[in-house]
Batch of 2 targets.
Target 1
Amino acid sequence: MPGVYLTTSEFLDDAKSAVKDRGMPSLRMVALPADTYYRSRASQDELKPIATAAFAAIVDDLVRPLTAEEAHPSQVQKQLESANIKVTGKDYQDAYQKVNDLFLDSHWADGLPIVPPTPKLVKAMLAATTRSPQEVIGQVAPKQGTATIEKIAVNSVMAGAKPEYFPVILAAMDGFIDKHYDLTHVQASTGSFTPLVIVSGPLGKELGFNSGIGMLGHGFRANSTVGRALRMSLLNIGQTWPQVNDMALTGRLEAYTFFTFAEDNEKSPWEPYAVSLGYKPEDSTVTVATSGNPVVLGGGAVAPWTGQGVIDQMIARISGGGGFGWFHSQTFVIVLIPDCAVDLASAGYTRKSLQAYMFEKSRLPFEKLSPATVKLTQEAIADGRISPEHAQMFKDNLKPGGRVPIVQSPDDFHIFVAGGSPGYDLLFSYPGPNWAHQTKKVTGATLTKAGR
Amino acid sequence: MKKRMNWLLGAALLIAALCSAGAACAQVTLEVMNPRGEIPPPPTIGINPRVPDLAGKKIVLVDNGKFGANNFLDVLAAMLKQKYPTATIVMYPKPAAQTITDMPKWYPTVAQQGDLFIFGVGD
């Protein structure tokens, strides 16, 4: 079926990149002017001049005979990315500068200087894991680049990570590449989401992650370089670039290091998050999730608060919007400062009972749901996106007087304990379908006591 | 002391002479590894032959669900109908990704709706 794809001028490069990725490089497109389209699109009257200007091109794309290349485009050859690169300078400083110029000008880095990934440094990184350098852990969206342990090691060196951190980086990459993690959306969407990378278990302390005051800030090598190694791996292995195929409109809030921190398992009154999922106390895990801007709650150093008050404010934020109708896939990441968690534990809450409380209190009255949300929820029940074990609960409540859960299960509230004393509590959420939440166990570490 | 100074001066002159003669005495080569992932290229396919004229054709306008796309396609539909009165315009909205389990199976259904398609507006 012949067709034409309409896009806007700001997304033309992105569209061209996507059709090449999918093997249809000659797809015809017409780009509408972004500077007028977006501010006119609410009004058909205002869109008329834009449609009039584009009309001839749209028709032409449907009737103009194909060129030979359009009908039978050349097969794209695999671009080999295996050979080492040699850079010569008049002295070490000059060579170092030239490596950085090459990587930054080629879009092989995040815009900041890198550590040159020499074979010696990469070998040292690889020695931190028992996993084979040639092991393929999966394909990285959006271009489906092949992620090997060695490629991730190269990017980890560039980021300045210590070899000891490497098994944590690999576990996080296992999560990002999991088929249930919606990496294409996270890597490319206009929504400008930021991944969360949270370490739970003994490795957090052993590696020196900051879990206290300033845990999302700068200055701590584990937090900063683990996050940066992941940023660089996703960028280079998935081959993304802003304004080309990473269309995050504002850029990401933690663009260089993501939201990377560890749970404070010593100050938490509850078992580590990993243990709550069924892992052993000696296990360490990495959870990767996705979020927009977190909601900051609690009093910090300037106002009184109670644990119950913080939780009730979170519930009000979670349920206040009336839901997006994506109950089948929403999850929330809740980071409580240790003082808040202790306060809640003193009041009798366990992590489990707190999840159950949030689940019950965040339910929405059926009457508050829009018809579209009701329809979406019914479809999700019918096609299995709301799992059969939870479907009856939704069916029972999708009627007048019902109270509809905002997530499928209490377990979709993921509660971590970290932050300062004083501190602020954080609510991370993803304003859309969140398939993007995975926890992976750290394995194969050779340089640390934990994570082996 | 003087003897030592002379020795240092001689050594410095020798190094300078070697370097100015083009010797690679101070050059440094850094060998670095490629950070990029290899991309298995997908099989390439061409696009379908065009039609000679839109007159009499069934044209499917696929609204991708982005805000305002319906407005643009409505305007386009009116213009197509005016210029090609014998054409049939079919509006065929794409379901939101989160409302359909198997999106790849939905795309082929577009081809069942008519002769040509216009898909938009992508952002």
Note: Residues 64-120 of chain B form one domain.
Target 2
Amino acid sequence: MTDAAPALIVAMLAVPLATALLVTLVPSPRAADRLNLTTSVLTAALALVLAVTALAGAPGVAAEGSWYVLDAASGVFLALISVVGLASAAVSPLYLRHAGRGWFTARRSHTWYYAGFNLFWAVLLALPLADNLALAWLLVEATTAASALLVAFSGKRSALEAGWKYVVLTTLGLAVALLGILVLYVAAGSAGSGLGRLDWHALAQQGERLPGQATLVAFVLILVGLASKIGWAPVHNWLPDAHSEAPPPVSAMLSAALLPTVLLIAWRTELALEPALGLGTVQELFIGFGLASLLVAIPFLWRPLPWKRLLAYSSLEHMGVLALGIGFATPLAIAGVVVHLAGHGLAKALGFYTAIPLLRQDPSTAERAPRDIARSSAPTAAAMSVSLVSLAGLPPSPLFVSEVMILLGGMDAGLIAVSSIAAVLLALGFLGLAHALLEGLLGTVRGQRPRRSHSARAIGALAVAVALALIALTVTAYALPGSDVVTALTGSGA
Amino acid sequence: MGDPAIAVLVGLGFGVMLVRRRSVATLLVAVQAMLLGVAALSLAGDRPAGFLVAAVILLTRALALPALLAFTRRRTPEPYLVTPATTVLVRLLVAAVVVLVAVASIPPLGLGDVAAEQGAVALLSLGIAIVVMRRPAILQVLGIVVAENGIYLLAISVPGGLPFVIELGALFDLVLVVTVAAAFTRKIHAEVGTGDTDLLRGLRD
């Protein structure tokens, strides 16, 4: 299978790119739905085959080429992006059925939605494979252009505001990161010529030969720049707006796939430059962003926010948890990071999909916190419960296991004060989400009776599947510490 | 690039912060890109491939992107000039402080060309300041381009130059982002009746 990896990679990227073109030729919205679903299954299957190949090759590298590397990290992220992408493609017709006229005319909205969706998905799938910092930056920047119009797809004034903020703020942040990359390129002058100077392994091999001050400046600029795209506080301003205004399947892609995948680039940069900078400096930066994100997110989890906005602030919280895990850098914490990535991806994607029937049943929940959902729609209530119970970290959620692993990993690293503060903040976050869930399910509401939504049953069925997957992930989590995958992620080139 | 030329580049960036007319600001950024492009061409000199890449970048940055923004401006007519949030003096003062603090706080970047390093940091911080302080959407896009021009100044100052993949890839991404931003500008104008982004302040917690 390793020999076939180059062809599989080309096919995996070609299918969504071709779909983006082909979908402009199909005659009807329903045909666009069918084409997108068919090709999405193919794309996800190819990505999953590559993910399995990569994970089977851990702790080594399964395959590498002129621009790509198929290692454990790319395996984990390809699996995540393919599952979330396929699920988003599957639920998109439920959203589009009632989306009506937005940025585009109702007749052409399916076409442009699927074209943008597939371009975005293709770039996302290429990102974890990138074997080079500069190439990774180009792809991260391309995700902005590919997804910005999707964020503003509804064409509402609030969606335009969210999309505009997303484009402007992340582009400026990535300009800062590019400045850091240029500084690093000059600093790594003795590592050969051309683009290969910025390959992950070339940077790591330079080790202490990299000039300390210039490398530190470069790393800080790169991390701060990428932080604006990951959505770490205090450069997270676009995140709540974009996630709450984008179509729910796109919000799921942004939160469950885009943010963690950009975080992977920061993680790979950290691992590549750690030999030059030492663990202490890079640890402090990740932990700083992690704690800041938790501190900013938690108060919002206590407020009665509209459903998607609540999930957006939950994304901020969970990106903070991942930053802490990477900063702690012990094998246990890294095992926790892997579980957290997968658990957050599944639970958050389901949460955003739940917004489809929720907003259909009661459009006013776009502006206020949902109430009394248990009475109005049992499937929607079930999906809300699975999502929020998991995101809150209530056992048997895999996020409970991952957060315990990360906190214990922090203590293992001797960072007891940081771990303790993070534990308190996570407990507060748990209480906030639990309160939001109870209010959403059982809180009383005055006014008209909600409409029925046919999409509720589909989302309810999806909730059952996600619940089973989350339980399976919890069971798997106990086998992860000490595994080859974690060994690869801790040392030999995530 | 020589110190006077870098000073002119930064001065043009300040101009974008100060002027009220979108057409004048677009022209200033086009001149900035033209200066950078000519410098890149002269540095490429005897390398045909480098010369070709520099020429493509010059044409795109100094002609195509300003033309796109000029076209967008024509399609989004403003009945009145958007009232700035602050006076010219305040904008000048804030921009000067931002630039000075940024230049003073960034240590040497290792290029061996202090003027280019400081010019790049100045333009990057100026671009960010323009986005924060200017209200018209097109001026905010121009702020992004000013910031990217700062990065390009650094790129052409790298000894031996950058790999073409990075230069052309960054150019491609810039074109994509500016095109998307131009589409947003037209849509915002159609929805709000003006390109004043200050009217897009509905999302608050």
Note: Chain A is about 75% helix and 0% strand.
